[in-house]
């Protein structure tokens, strides 16, 4: 996955068995914006429709923009992926960690 200089639009690929995200961002939108977690979003970008790229060691995944600075053990992979043919993306589909584990009973 290439580092992004600017946010890009990505498509959501959902798990076929229904919503497994507990109402995560990928269950609500077909397209989202993807940006580096340490960047500032442009004024015209809605943070509620944006994902942040997290790079830890050799692992790359994405979380909802609002979760980029929260403790990540709370956020889990909900079964959905993102991808785009935009050459700036430069990699395979990415797992979206938008299942908020604090909502589990």
What does this structure look like?
With 105 residues, this protein is mainly β. The protein has strands at residues 8-13, 31-36, 50-56, 59-64, 75-76, 81-83, 94-95, 99-100. Strands 4-3-2-1-6-7 form a 6-stranded mixed β-sheet, with no helix packed on it. The protein has a two-stranded antiparallel ribbon with strand order 5-8. A hairpin with a 2-residue loop joins strand 3 and strand 4. The termini are far apart.
Residue stretches low in confidence (pLDDT < 50, at least 5 long) are none
Give the strand order of the largest sheet, numbering strands 1, 2, ... along the chain: 4-3-2-1-6-7
The proportion of strand residues reads: 25-35%
Helix count equals 0
Number of strands: 8
Radius of gyration (Å): 13 Å
Succession of helices and strands? EEEEEEEE
Gap from first CA to last CA: 35 Å
* Structural shape: globular
Structural class: mainly beta
> Helicity level, as a percent range?
under 10%
Summarize the structure.
This protein is mostly beta strands and 105 residues long. 0% of the residues lie in helices and 32% in strands.
Features:
105 residues, six-stranded mixed beta sheet, mainly beta, single chain, globular, two-stranded antiparallel sheet
Topology (SSEs and partners):
Elements: E1 8-13, E2 31-36, E3 50-56, E4 59-64, E5 75-76, E6 81-83, E7 94-95, E8 99-100
Parallel strand pairs: 2-3
Antiparallel strand pairs: 1-2, 1-6, 3-4, 5-8, 6-7
């Amino acid at each position: 996955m290439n580092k992004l200089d600017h946010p890009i639009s990505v498509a959501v690929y959902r798990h076929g068995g229904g919503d497994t995200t507990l109402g995560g961002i990928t269950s609500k939108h077909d397209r989202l914006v993807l940006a580096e977690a340490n960047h500032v979003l442009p004024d015209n970008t809605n943070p509620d429709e944006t994902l942040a790229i997290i790079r830890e060691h050799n692992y790359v995944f994405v979380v909802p923009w609002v979760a980029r600075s929260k403790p990540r053990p709370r956020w889990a992979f909900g079964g959905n992926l993102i991808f785009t043919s935009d050459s700036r993306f430069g990699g395979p589909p990415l797992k979206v960690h938008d299942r908020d584990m604090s909502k589990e009973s």
